[in-house]
């Protein structure tokens, strides 16, 4: 017979003639990288060369390359060391030292389909394990462009397939939850495991073992440290040979508290309650960035949500709220690189789900405005139902502050001797006292602002001063003594702050363009630290913005005596209008001086004991006494001149004495000359 050896992808073939036999051998004396590849052979009769056999099945020659170019890989079983049960699943991991190569899994001469990997390792999963899967495995890898130049195989790993697995144990940890550093922890593995041995694993690595006693055994950690945090499982094994391994238990986590991590704060937006079908956001704020926040609900051992915000605040939205969302929530955080070292839990916050049939109550504060430190204040809540329970909430606090069961439909929450911590935004809601809890929607918020007596009172001024014409622009200036404060402008009879500003300096200007009658009234201002929005200075003294009524004719003003008044003398400033029974306002140099009731249509303002400060320009206006109050434009000004006549008389006497002295000298000189001439 004549035999031919062919290599895939190679144009040349090799020929061997065997006159008497049926087997041919093709030796390769010194194997090199080029000899790797897929080979087939065929034959034909020497006598009849027109007929050839079909080619054989292919056979591959794989050339192993030693270090350092292709170091042998490592192989491991991603399962407990005891093996895997029939019908179970297992994975075999092969890890090399090159990226972007093709891995091959081998079992006792049989090759599994190769797998390409962009990383350093690849995982070969085996599901529905049968007896045939048991045995010795190794792996190798090669470049994708050179499939027949392969690394040396890894060391072997043995896959044990168990026929009749023992029942897997259960695992529990006491105390459960988050463990304090230095605290004792007991890990209990429980099973029907007489004459068996228990093994404890952390992160898949066996760390401890002991002989089971009756229905299980306990592994004690007397003083928990950071490195004890992690995932634990346990497994049992027969003490006799060959070993009979159970399946592993469920996993159990040990979370260790990091005492340097301050506990986070938790709040609800909106606070106080949310209606069925509404939306609410649970906000959790920590003290560090690059951390992961976890949200828990009381009664559920698993985290509901987790988040990795860019800053130190995480938000957990809950949409389409239902009754099952009601309950107590708390949150933790941990560094992303240390998932088993956590902060302490936040204080709990209560999510109240309101019933749509309960309308929201009203809320008020008495007295309103800024409350002095150690003053008393009362929060009142009112609704239309009897026999209900009122609950008071403060924004930023997790749960309601207090509750009361009033006999009527109004509840009072008194605060005596107000302190800094009482400042804040408050709401209230109500619920039935018996049966399944059903809550109203929260009231609108109301604020309590507490005055800090250590903050100096600001000053306030108007520009321009006096009566302001409708349509003009005016500016209210508020001046404090500290920088980087938030200034608030208040108007009398309006309990809410009108406007606020955050100036860079220690003062703020509030502009009112196109002044109208509605802007008239008394204004004051206050300021607060931006970091303490509910702690305020005391309000400034008030300043009145007077807006003229264009339909009222302006009055006239006159001063008696008109030529001026002697120092410490008396004068009268007289204002006259066409309107009877109006109240007159007197202004000096644009500033308010006083008011007076008229006799008829004339009002007189006496100036007794006139001093230099009384000198100046005076004008007056008047306003009606009926509501709404209307103010006239100011009169034309009149000037009050204060004269010191004592000084004038002294000057006159001095001048007269000088004149008399001069005359005396002239006469004396004349008499002396006459005498000389007579002689």
Description:
There is one protein chain. The termini are far apart. Helices cover 5% and strands 43% of the residues. The chain has 1 helix and 60 strands. The strands form 17 sheets. Strands 18, 20, 21, 23, 24 and 32 form a 6-stranded mixed β-sheet that branches. Strands 36, 38, 39, 41, 42 and 50 form a 6-stranded mixed β-sheet that branches. Strands 9, 10, 11, 13 and 15 form a 5-stranded antiparallel β-sheet that branches. With 679 residues, the protein is mainly beta. The chain is elongated and about 190 Å long.
Helix content: under 10%
Amino- and carboxy-terminal Cα gap: 194 Å
CATH topology of the largest domain: Immunoglobulin-like
Q: Helical region count?
A: 1
Mean pLDDT: 84
Q: Look at the structure and give the CATH class of the largest domain.
A: Mainly Beta
What is the total number of structural domains?
Answer: 8
**How is the main sheet built?**
6 strands, mixed
Strand content: 35-45%
Radius of gyration: 50 Å
The CATH homologous superfamily of the largest domain is named: Immunoglobulins
């Amino acid at each position: 017979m004549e035999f031919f050896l062919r290599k895939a992808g190679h144009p040349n073939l090799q020929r061997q003639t065997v006159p008497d036999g049926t087997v041919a051998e093709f030796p390769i004396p010194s194997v090199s990288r080029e000899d790797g590849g897929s080979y087939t052979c065929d034959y034909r009769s020497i006598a009849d060369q027109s007929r050839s056999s079909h080619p054989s099945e292919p056979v591959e020659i794989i050339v192993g390359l030693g270090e350092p170019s292709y170091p042998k890989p490592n192989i491991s079983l991603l399962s407990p060391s005891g093996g895997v049960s029939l019908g179970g699943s297992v994975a075999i991991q092969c890890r090399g030292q090159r990226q972007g190569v093709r891995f091959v899994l081998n079992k006792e001469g049989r090759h599994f389909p190769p797998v390409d990997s962009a990383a350093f390792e690849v995982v070969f999963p085996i599901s529905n394990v049968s007896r045939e899967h048991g045995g010795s495995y190794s792996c190798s890898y090669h470049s994708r462009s050179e499939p027949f130049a392969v690394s040396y195989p890894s060391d072997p790993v043995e896959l044990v397939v168990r026929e009749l697995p023992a029942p897997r144990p259960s695992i529990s940890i006491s105390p459960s939850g988050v463990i304090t550093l230095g605290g004792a922890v007991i890990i209990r593995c429980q099973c029907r495991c007489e004459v068996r041995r228990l093994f404890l694993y952390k992160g898949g690595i066996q760390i401890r073992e002991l002989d089971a006693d009756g229905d299980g055994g306990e592994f004690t950690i007397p003083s928990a440290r950071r490195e004890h945090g992690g995932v634990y499982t346990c497994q049992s094994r027969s003490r006799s040979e060959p070993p009979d391994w159970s399946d592993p238990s469920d996993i159990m986590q040990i979370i260790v508290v990091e005492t340097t991590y301050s506990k986070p704060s938790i709040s609800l937006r909106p606070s106080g309650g949310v209606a069925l079908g509404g939306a609410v956001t649970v906000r959790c704020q920590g003290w560090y960035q690059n951390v992961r926040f976890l949200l828990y609900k009381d009664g559920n051992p698993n985290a509901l949500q987790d988040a990795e915000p860019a800053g130190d605040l995480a938000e957990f939205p809950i949409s389409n709220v239902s009754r099952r969302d009601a309950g107590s929530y708390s949150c933790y955080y941990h560094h992303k690189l240390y998932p088993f070292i956590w902060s302490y839990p936040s204080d709990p916050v209560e999510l109240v789900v309101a019933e749509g049939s309960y309308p929201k109550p009203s809320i008020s504060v008495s007295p309103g405005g800024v409350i002095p430190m150690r003053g008393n204040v009362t929060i009142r809540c009112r609704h239309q139902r009897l026999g209900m329970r009122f609950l008071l909430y403060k924004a930023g606090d997790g749960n309601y502050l207090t509750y009361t069961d009033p006999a009527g439909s109004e509840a009072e929450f008194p605060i005596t001797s107000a302190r800094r911590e009482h400042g804040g935004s408050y709401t209230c809601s109500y619920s039935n006292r018996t049966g399944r809890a059903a809550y109203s929607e929260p009231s609108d918020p109301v604020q309590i602002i507490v005055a800090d007596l250590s903050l100096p009172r600001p000053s306030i001024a108007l520009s321009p001063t006096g009566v302001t014409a409708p349509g003009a622009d005016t500016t209210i200036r508020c001046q404090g003594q500290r920088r980087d404060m938030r200034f608030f402008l208040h108007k009398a009879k309006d309990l809410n702050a009108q406007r606020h500003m955050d100036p860079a300096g220690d003062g703020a200007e509030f502009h009112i363009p196109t002044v109208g009658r509605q802007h008239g009234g008394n204004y004051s201002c206050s300021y607060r630290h931006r970091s303490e929005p509910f702690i305020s200075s005391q309000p400034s003294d008030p300043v009145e913005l007077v807006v003229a009524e264009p339909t009222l004719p302006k009055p006239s003003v006159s001063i008696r005596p008109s030529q001026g008044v002697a120092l410490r003398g008396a004068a009268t400033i007289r204002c006259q209008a066409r309107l009877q029974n109006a109240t007159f306002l007197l202004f000096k140099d644009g500033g308010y001086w006083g008011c007076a009731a008229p006799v008829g249509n004339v009002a007189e303002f006496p100036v007794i004991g006139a001093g230099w400060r009384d000198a100046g320009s005076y004008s007056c206006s008047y306003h009606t006494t009926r509501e709404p109050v209307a103010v006239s434009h100011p009169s034309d000004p009149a000037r009050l001149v204060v004269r010191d006549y004592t000084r004038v008389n002294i000057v006159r006497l001095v001048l007269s004495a000088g004149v008399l002295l001069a005359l005396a000298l002239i006469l004396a000189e004349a008499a002396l000359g006459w005498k000389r001439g007579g002689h």
